[in-house]
Amino acid sequence: MREVAVIGVGLTKFGDRWEAGIKDLAAEAGLAALEDAKIISSEIEALYGGIMSSGRFTDQEHFAALLADQIGLKHISAVRVENACASGGSAFRLGYMAVASGMHDIVVVGGVEKMTDVTVNEATTALGGAGDQEWELSQGITFPGLYALMARRHMHDYGTTQEQLASVAVKNHGNALANKYAQFHRKITIDDVMKSKMIADPLKLLDCSSICDGAAAVVLAPMEIAKKYTDTPIKVAGSAQVGDTLRLASRDSLTGIAATRIAADKALAQAGVERKDIDLAEVHDCFTIAEVMGVEDLGFYNKGEAAKAIAEGETMIDGKLPVNTSGGLKGCGHPVGATGVKQVVEVVEQLRGDAGARQVNGAEIGLTHNVGGSGATVVVHVFRRAD
Ligand SMILES: CC(C)(COP(=O)(O)OP(=O)(O)OC[C@H]1O[C@@H](n2cnc3c(N)ncnc32)[C@H](O)[C@@H]1OP(=O)(O)O)[C@@H](O)C(=O)NCCC(=O)NCCS
Q: If DSSP codes are grouped into helix, strand and coil, which group holds residue 299?
């Protein structure tokens, strides 16, 4: 396999983008990534586009062709990737594999979702399709409901408190203040989270990621030519994707996601990196409990110990292990197909030293963790500076 580098990144502002259609979002992020890589469209051989539910949200299908068209790519191989909230992470892994295998040289990976053209009820139903439609959604359980079950069990087994969960939201909203692409630029307190409206007990509005619009894109190249385009190629050092049962009730445990544990072991082994070497991680915090379980399952904390550590500030930007420096899904918003690619953009900017007020000092190795559904798909990547 060849070594692969990220040579360009692009993002749109996340949020209620009433003024922009799905095509505008795709063009905004895609063209920004091409410009960042200083690449012309005729050099690009393939595109992988992550999107969860463009048909339900916008009536638009055939998304990869649309994305290629919007950024002026003609006669290339364009493939849509759908893996629920992990669509972006899975698209990135396919782009990586295409370059690593030698099949293609320059590849674009994009992720988009335009969720606000439908009502919140319609969006909740569409998102419910990421679980087992027959055994979960049609019985009345939504995604906030599934994660609420996990939160309750975590609280029961480990004494995790609602205030500790709230501290995840407070941290991530705080980090988002320094990210111009984030949806929320609003500092919040534990009290704000505790007093926000109940969504699915014990998860309140401010424990949830939002329904919003946004797009992200990156450009990949083999390492041997990456320096032609950029002085700071970021190496994709490890890549793993692992699945599990679609239905939460069929899992062995409600307090963790086994696929995360296995994917982390595989990606770190490929990268030749130990957990203590990771300088920052973008962790899938679709709900506050998801970040707590995420850092435990990734092996950064023992089971039952992360919530206290987060509440004590260990995962702040200047803490022992900075988590979700971008603001995460909570502070940035969660346009589902875009999220996995946005996580890569954040880690690349950090490893380049371009993250401004969010910069983790001396960051050299970063990790992304993207979850589809309640854990039926997990994608983990490890990145490192390549100089
Ligand atoms: C939590 C949720 C139900 C809130 O939707 P809602 O009740 O319709 O909220 P509203 O649209 O009434 O918004 C009320 C206010 O809260 C804000 N808001 C909405 N969701 C928010 C969130 N998740 N975090 C912070 N603020 C939020 C809105 O901007 C609005 O602010 P304003 O009054 O200043 O305009 C919705 O965001 C949701 O379903 N989130 C989870 C999405 C999901 O499941 N994703 C997949 C994960 S696997």
A: coil
Q: What is the residue with the minimal CA distance to atom 18 of ligand 1?
A: 210
Residues 135-166: pLDDT tens digits? 999 999 999 999 999 999 999 999 999 999 99
Annotated active-site residue 334? The verdict is yes
Mean pLDDT value across residues 276-284 = 98
Q: Domains plus CATH for the chain? A: 4-119+211-234 (3.40.47.10), 131-208+238-385 (3.40.47.10)
Kindly state the tokens that stand for 238. 């490890």
Q: pLDDT digits over 189-246, tens only? A: 999 999 999 999 999 999 999 999 999 999 999 999 999 999 999 999 999 999 999 9
Residue 91 to residue 103: CA distance in whole angstroms? 16
User: DSSP label at 344?
Assistant: H
Index of the ligand 1 atom closest to the CA of residue 196: 16
Active site residue 62: no
| Cα separation, 226 vs 100, whole angstroms | 13
Q: Report the DSSP pairing between strands 280-282 and 198-200.
A: unpaired
Choose among 284, 274, 148: nearest CA to 203: 148
User: Which ligand 1 atom sits closest to the C-alpha of 84?
Assistant: 48
pLDDT in tens, 17-74: 999 999 999 999 999 999 999 999 999 999 999 999 999 999 999 999 999 999 999 9
What DSSP string runs through 159-207?
A: ---HHHHHHHHHHHHHHHTT-TT-S------HHHHHHSPEEETTEEGGG
Cα(378) to centroid of ligand 1, in Å? 24
Per-residue burial over 224-241, b if 16 or more Cβ lie within 10 Å, else e, is eebeebbebbbbbbbbbb
**pTM of the complete model:** 0.98
The catalytic residue among 154, 334, 369, 381 is 334
User: How many other CB atoms are there within 10 angstroms of residue 328's CB atom?
Assistant: 34
Q: Which burial class, exposed, middle or buried, applies to 282 when counting CB atoms under 10 A from its CB (0-12, 13-18, 19+)? A: buried
